Amino acid sequence: MSKSVAYIGLSGPVCYDYKNSLNRKYPNPILEAPLGLMILYDEVVFLDEAVCPKSMRKLEFVKFLSDTKDITDYLERIEQKRIDEYTKQIWQGNTLRSEKLENIAKTIAPFARYDNHSNLISQAIFPNSTSVLNVIYDNIVAHDEKLTHHEFFN
Fold first, then answer.
1. In this structure, is residue 152 part of a structural domain?
2. Which of 78, 42, 56, 59 is nearest to 152 (CA)?
3. pLDDT tens, 68-106?
4. CA–CA gap between residue 101 and residue 62 (Å, rounded)
5. Among 33, 108, 131, 140, which residue has the least CB neighbours within 10 Å?
């Protein structure tokens, strides 16, 4: 039996807690259901420590892709001319309104002073839960690293 692996990328954290930061550079990422990740998966792979909650960083089943790869290389895979096509596939005309994000954040993290984005990780890599470009980036990474069974890109 193969192990089950979850991937959390730039669009994974719902919001970021600026009151309880990871360090001086990054706010603490807030996931919607971290306990579910721990129960349902054998391994949780985060793109970078900047998108991993402080409480999960030292767990033995948590890995960071940025420890073994240059994550900026994936940006080259995003062809500007296809972003509109991907956007239509992903969102199908819908957008996440800020009021909905605020309600979600207040429900799962009432203690937090939150925002939907973090600080820049490296060149043009900016975690943000409402960015279509980040959803595309995460799908490319998950596909290339075989961290998903879904074939978003043909």
1. no
2. 78
3. 988 887 777 666 556 666 666 655 555 555 667 777 777
4. 26
5. 33
In the numeric block, which tokens belong to residue 29?
């990422």
Phi, psi at residue 137, to the nearest 5°? Answer: -55, -50
Q: What is the 3-class SS of the chain, one letter each residue?
A: CCCCEEEECCCCCCEEECCCCCCCCCCEEECCCHHHHHHHCCEEEECCHHHCCHHHCCCCCEEEHHHCCCHHHHHHHCCHHHHHHHHHHHHCCCCCCHHHHHHHHHHHCCCCCEECECCCCECCECCECCCHHHHHHHHHHHHHCCCCCCCCCC
pLDDT tens digits, one per residue of 28-45: 898 988 888 889 999 999
Number of domains the chain contains:
1
Domain residues for the domain of 86 are 5-144
Answer whether 0.85 is exceeded by the pTM: no
Residue 151 falls within a domain, yes or no? no
Count CB neighbours of 65 within 10 A.
Answer: 20
Take residue 84 and report the two structure tokens written for it. Answer: 């509109």
In a domain, 106, yes or no: yes
Say how far apart CA 105 and CA 11 lie, in whole Å.
14
